[in-house]
## 1
Amino acid sequence: MIELTGVKKSFGKQEVLKDVSIKVDDGEVVVILGPSGSGKTTLLRSINFLEKADSGTMKFSDKIINFKNPKKKDILYMRRHTGFVFQNYGLFAHKTVLQNVMEGLVQVQKKSKQEAQQIAEEVLQNVGMLEKKDSYPSQLSGGQQQRVGIARAVALKPEVILFDEPTSALDPELVGETLEVIKKVAKTGITMIVVTHEMSFAEDVADRVIFMDGGVVVEEGKPGEIFYKPKEERTRQFLSRIIPQDAYVI
Amino acid sequence: MSFSVSSFWESLVSALAYAPVTIKLTAITFVVSLVLGTIIATIRYYKVPVLSQIFAVFVTAYLGLPTMVALLLYNIIFMTCYADVANVLHITVPISEVDPIIIGYFALILGTSCSVSESVRGAFRGIDKVQFEAGYSIGLGKFKTLTRVIYPQMVPILLPGLQNSLIGLLKASNLVSAISVIEIMTGALLPSLLYYSYLEGYVAAALVYWLIGIGIEVIGYLAEKNSGKYLKQVATG
């Protein structure tokens, strides 16, 4: 279980997170929705300290971490128990697909090269990228890179995987293959927090949807409730712009 | 003006005999400066309190100091202070026994470290922030992210500039002749002192420097060819 309480963060004078609290249970898939600038990505990034929140606390496993002055040991602990999938893939440019997935297994988890390779190949097989294991990221399409990014996170067997708009940088044609892989990961029962704009994905996969705007959680609930019976006017407004009301042909 | 082939040959042989002095001075200075320059650049990149400010001022100031001035300055400080310092440290070696090349090392390493640190700082700016974050996200610490992810990616960015620095250093190493170290040029002139064959001596020295320079460029070319294969190909058209 991961529980954030009273998280605040400002960039200069701009307050991006104004007292945000969320709780995610083990095995739950939570989708965070919201317009740009709502603070959803910042919230996600503060969980593994890619962004340093100003205040608030985080409860994870049996640890309670204070955002104001986290210990180095706790930061490393969070990073070693969570996986992160980046919007722009974030693959190590100088390493092959296989080396990308093996890096954490060998350097962080201290597995033997042999064992690491075995795990890496298995995970790459699952995301359909085993054939490209000797390619460099620059030789792959965006969708392929993102599948490797997911494999790299999954291979380390984290307790939680954080997805930061995993399909936003992709060509529309490549979104589907990436979402399929994420759905497959979700089915393994791992805890996931996904920041995305993909509504149908959220509806299919999410156990719960959190809608954020202006640095606060506006509303949360089951996807059906949020999408079809939103309680807040702001949610309704946002959804009306994202979910096409009338399909039309040009 | 006449050109004596036999004098030229004699100077060339003498210059080649001292080539190892220049090559060793250049190579050791380069390797040490690469390490120091990378450390300085990393400290400045991470804005380590106090140290980064000190290095920022030092590098900026030091880059304006000509190598020859630095060399002669350290030499004179060494000459005047050696006796006292040796006394305090209980060193019994007389100053005449100390190889002046250590002053050459000192001056060249300081200058080259500063210029290399600026190249490395430039290379830091060429690395996407997400590469650091990706390292952290899989649980690597700061140090391992640097050594496993960032520094390796800097190599192809740095190579052309480093090759330039190395050739510059080769040429600057010639200045140690001013503090009575015998290297390629002074070596080439040894026969000239006997026969007044200075033209032949200088041409011989130039030829040896030129050959070493070509050697460096060949190594640089091979290194560039073999690094950064993962990078996208250069756009055509």
Note: The CA atoms of residues 9 and 15 of chain A lie 6 Å apart.
## 2
Amino acid sequence: MNRTPIIQRFCVALLGCVLLSTASLGQNAKPAAYAIKGGKVFTLAGAPIENGTVVIRDGKIAAVGANIEIPAGAQVIDATGLEVYPGMFDAATQIGLGEISQVSATLDVTELGNYNPELVAATAVNPASAYIPVTRASGITEVIAAPGTAGFDAQGGGLITGQASAFNLAGWTMEDMQLNRSVAMVINWPSIQTRTFDFATFSIKEKAYSDAKKEYDKSVNELSDWLNRARHYAQAKEKGSPALYERDLKLESLVPVVQGKLPVLVIADDERDIRNAVEFCTKQNLKMILGSGAEAWKVKDLLKEKKIPIILGPTERIPDKEDTPYDKPMTQPSELFAAGIPFAFSSFGTSFSRRLPQYAGASVAYGLPHDEALKAVMLNAAQIFGLGDQLGTLEAGKLGNVIVTNGDPLEIQTQVKYLFIKGQLTSLANRHSDFYEQYRKRPKPTQ
Amino acid sequence: MKRVLLIAIVFIFAGMGAWPASAQNPSTIFIQNATIFTVTQGNIEHGGILIRDGKIAAVGKDLKAPDGVAVIDATGQYVIPGIIDCHSHIAVDGSVNEGGPAVSSMANIADVLNPEDISIYDDLAGGVTSANILHGSANPIGGQTIVIKLRWGKPASALPFEGALPGIKFALGENPKRSGFTPPPGIPPRYPATRLGVEEVIRQAFIEATEYKKQWDDYNARRAAGEQGLVAPRRNEQLQPLVEVMEGKRYVHSHCYRADEILMLMRVAKEFGFKVRTFQHVLEGYKIADEIAASGAGGSTFSDWWGYKVEAYDAIPYNAALMTERGVVVSINSDDAQEARQLNQEAAKSMKYGGMTANDALKMITINPAIQLGIDKRVGSIEVGKDADLVIYNHDPLSVYAVAQQTLIDGQVYFDRQKDLAGRAALEKEKQDLLAKEKKAAEEKKDEDKKAGDKAGAKPDAKKKPDPKKKPPQDANGSASAVAGGAL
């Protein structure tokens, strides 16, 4: 724990971003190359390199090391006294799909109906959303937007809610930004809920267990049914002529799922729900990633046995149940690590995506090794979603998503000084820093 | 029946989550070899704190433990004043919103304190020792509020902060105009529905309160002058708290977001001769920080919440730092049981956003909220004579790596992390025993029913029998905090 002396830095908060351009979507025409020089480089693929250099060229990391030649014409970034890391990856958000959670006109998170496998998050991610520059200013360079998920800014809903999309947090269009339009099919696992909160009447509604169970069984049967139909559809398509079947977008979207090519991100929290979801996915032969997973600590053996990774929800939350130890959400990551279960941190939010490093830091306070926490915000999500060859470490050939900080990136007070996305130096200015600059200059009112 | 039993079990556990600080706590405690952040009198390395009869008796570098006193060895640890949360909804039984009338000043949170709310323990474990428990924000003039100490394990009557002035919640903007609320079918929308109406409701209420006050003042004056046979004015529970506001006996804590509505309330307050004690949330406070400072009101805000509604779209994490720069007394509050237990982290964000000093950041969760609640003579800093409300961390409290180890209130240890950890196995065993007992009872009942059924000659319906192997139903969501969440 002594590894992090607190530096009481009163940084010139925005100097970095003011010096950089504030092109509307953050990026200028790209210079041929950059060289980040003189910092301590945490590659996450080996020991940290003191006084290292990271060369970025044509959008990718070209070289990393202690004695790297700086290419002619490269823009040199002096990182003396600073630290260099891969950018952070928030693996479950609603970024771009929702602007103001109380104004439905600004929301594209939750579609009507329970089964919408054909919907793709990338379709409606707004590249001009204010959340994009705000979030990247905290060092998050790429995110996954997952339709239908619930969090601080979204109520969520539906069962098969659509395809999650991974994208970089800078770009003029989604075509610029996207990493993979379809990284997973999102399923909100049905829960046997006898008590639900009804927002319409702002009260708790109770129902008999037998009724709740009936509803649950119905949902699971429907889920099975959709997957079985997708299998038949795939067979018909493979063997039959197009005249024998009608094109069905929903079934077509589920084909890669039943073929095990597209993972399912199954959102579940309660022990019973997680067990049921694992049993279901095993039976259906699906490639499961557990999402949220508040009680994954009760199911470690099963998750380990089935090799199911977890995209964890916020660690800073009150336990769902009163008899759960008060610190369980914070200690769970260290338990999962000890059990050998891969996981990544995520916010399941939009406005709180910038708290991603805080969620990781809090788990370090409660026992997770610091380097594992770094991996769980930088590398693990990339690996879990099949983007490990492009992202997550500072190695030649990977995408130039790099952050330069003035200290431990998981610590509250640390500032991101430079940020690169797809190998381009990207503005840290955002809606919040703009207001700050504007209003701190307000003259004293004359009274 | 099963449900009732389960709920009973949950309650038993809620009560056992901690050790009620009891009379066994020694009256004199010495905390030794700590890094002490006094907040008002600098930092002390390797310092000691002597606690006697619930108060801080001595603080300093060269203190030695008196013979025979209980010693807490805080070598390598950090002590700060207990955290004060200026905006909380914990320890409330049921909803925090009396949303019926636009002026619900007759409702009082003090009447519905719930000492068994597990959030009290959760927040204690995050270093919170006092909290301002507020009514919700459904009304331009909301219910009465109360400051409590988080004396977990004590009855409701022991929660209130002795001598702290009571408050009243006002609310401006989207919540009182019910923007995010659709009335259930058959219920007409409630006035007001605009910020114009919000002002009108507040002004009208104070016009009536002024009249009411005048009736009582006249009555009291005539009575004092010896006049006989007078009939006292009819007591009005709705207006009485507003009279107390005008008399300076009750603080106004006003929920607000936009700069314009904050200026509006300042004008109304001036018109009726009262002060707004704190602007709560005050997310656009940075736009009019000079005006807030000049009014003498405090600002109690979030660290970095934003965007969840239109009036929060201009919220910036620099708000606390900017208001502080312009002379406003600023606190960082939680409005949420989880956020409360990480207020130390939230305060530290102003060092990142706006370059606040570490001590100024700490002030925002200790002495500043104490000033805002008028309890700064008692708490908010580590000074001789003040209440021994303290938190001991294993790390710099402004770091994400800090974990509260012990929390003291009135010199008594109300939270001890080591004890919590040590007690978990016993709690789990007790829970399993209770579940086994209940399962057994259910099976016995089943057998009895079967016998009775056989006697009556009825064929038992196997399908309808509960399967004893199945786990009992578990509840999820719908917790009290979800209700409080509506108070943003």
Note: Chain A touches chain B through 72 residues (CB under 8 Å).
